[in-house]
Amino acid sequence: MGEDRAQSGSGRSTEADRAYARLREAIVGERLAPNERLIEVELAEELGVGRAAVRTALARLEQDGLVDRVAYRGARVRAISEAEAVEIVEARAVLEGLVARHAARRATGEDVARLRATIRDMQARLEAGDLLGLSGLNGQLHRQMLGIARHETATRHIDALQAQNARYQFRTVLVPGRAAESLAEHRAIIAAVEAGQSDEAETLMLRHLSHVVEALRQAAKGRDGAWTAPESTAILPA
Predict the structure, then answer these.
(1) Angle 133-138-142 (CA atoms, 0-180°, nearest 5)?
(2) Tens digit of pLDDT for each residue in 58-101?
(3) Domain 2-77: assigned CATH number
(4) Which of 40, 78, 136, 177 has minimal CB crowding within 10 Å?
């Protein structure tokens, strides 16, 4: 009996992990929108797991800052305010500056070649007017930097922030001129990494992300200016 209970408990844990992973992916990937209700019985049926597994998954997602749960009212995908979006990028700036510093110390010729290949792809997307494709490659470039730096603590915290980063309701890539500026900033960072200039790489990354904060604020002011962020979008490229 004790062994059966242990196996059953293990099964529930596996179900909860699976439900957590799929729900997290759906939220980060924007298939579940900010403020969308998360109904346990419907999620359990869709995911093919028990309600207890869904409940556990939602509790974990609440800890991640991706879900809000209110007693007697259920759960919703957590929406992020403009002020919090700015704070997240400011926190990322410090961590990613550290990552750039370590990447400059550790990058090999092959690492730099991969970074430059991504930059070439980004340039092609910019020239083609594919701003969403450019945004995706931007994220790829930052992940490559994390891999080069091999700073586990920074990577863990950046991953947590990025989960919310993907759901910002403002697209800074659509701010006039920002995409080209961002690409130039990335080129400068990679040049510093290639040269092994750790101080310069960190400074340039901090400056780059401070510009992202400025663009975010500019995007949020669309209600008072000529540019308005689409309500249904949720990508903030760096």
Answers:
(1) 150
(2) 999 998 888 998 877 889 998 887 788 888 889 999 999 999 99
(3) 1.10.10.10
(4) 177
